[in-house]
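just leaving the lab so this will be short. below you get a single protein, a line of residues and a line of whole numbers that encode the local backbone shape. id like you to explain what the token line says about the fold, in plain words if possible. thanks a lot i owe you, the record is right below:

…
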Amino acid sequence: MSDNSFGHLFRVTTWGESHGPAIGCVVDGVPPGIKITEAEIQTWLDKRKPGSSRFVTQRREPDTVEILSGVFEGKTTGTSVSLMIRNQDARSKDYSDIKDKFRPGHADYTYWKKYGIRDYRGGGRSSARETACRVAAGGIARKVLGSKIKIRGAMVQMGDRIIDRDNWRWATVAKNPFWCPDAAAAKEWETYLDAIRKQGSSVGAVIEVVASGIPAGLGAPIYGKLDGDLAAAMMSINAVKGVEIGAGFGAAALTGEENADEMRMKDGEVEFQSNNAGGVLGGISTGQDLVVRFAVKATSSILTPRQTVTRQGKNTEIATKGRHDPCVGIRGVPVGEAMMACVLADHLLRHRGQTG
């Protein structure tokens, strides 16, 4: 089965488990001659890695990436690029008390029902640790896209606390531990999440990813829609329960007049007066900013006792100890950026292949 791969011409296959010796990915379809270094990929991994603040898991992983193939003398060769990240701070013993219990809200039960095998060490393949591979692949995708296309993500909601969009400043995103574009909201979130963390609980979040500099024409009708592939990519991220493009679910409350992104000519080019479509019409990019949001549920591993069952079919309670994110959405920001980059790189290559 090829269920560990995504993409068509730019194709990513990830491998490894949370508590195995290493995780990694193989990226196929990378054009030759692209300059790339481990340091460039590491820049993006450092945004996602654990232990970066008190608001994320304290698992201490350097997440150092190693290029194993596909790059020679600093340039891609056109063959598959293989990347590896070694696991250095796994504590499997933290999970020994729950090896026969299913964590509510987690993939423990469904993985067991499907495969008949339970890797209780941090969830094995279902762990969010796998997303480090996606971020590494996203670093390569950004090089394929080139410097004219910029991809940026931000957290716009934590729990029931929503940012004030009038305060949105991209420069603020890198100045707080939440990737929040609203400085006032970020300050409030510190107190809010500290209280959640000390309770041994967790909260969800909403992430917004914006790509600018996108040419018009990416994507294809019906089954190759750009927004369809973006939605699938974002939904594949751990703990994501909803995705919207542009106005998203809010479009249901708009009239036809309000929702229509009117067009005018300016300096010989089409200019849109609004962007409720989120940069995609009929599955094809308009040339406007591509805007995607996704909702991340609260971390399932919490200290608060919850009712569950065992593999032996007995009722019991569970409280998950160990090192977990009180808001896994924080580290979801660079993952969302990476998935956007991979989808766009794939569609850019597909567009060139069809239209020249």
About this structure: The chain has a mean pLDDT of 93. The radius of gyration is 21 Å. The first helix runs from residue 38 to 48.
